Amino acid sequence: MSNVLEVNDVHVAFGGLKAIDGCSFTVEKGTITALIGPNGAGKSTMVGSIAGAVSITSGSIIFDGNNISGLPTYKRAQGGLIRTYQISREFGGMTVLENLLVVRLGQSGESLINAVFRPKKSKDETNQLVAEANDILNTFGLYRLRNEYASNLSGGQKRLLELSRAVMAKPKMLLLDEPMAGVTPALIEILGQHLLELNRSTGMSMLLVEHNLEVVDKICSRVVVMAVGKRLAEGTLGELRQNRDVVEAYLGGEVHERVGG
Question: Contact, 12 vs 20, CB < 8 A?
Answer without folding.
Answer: yes
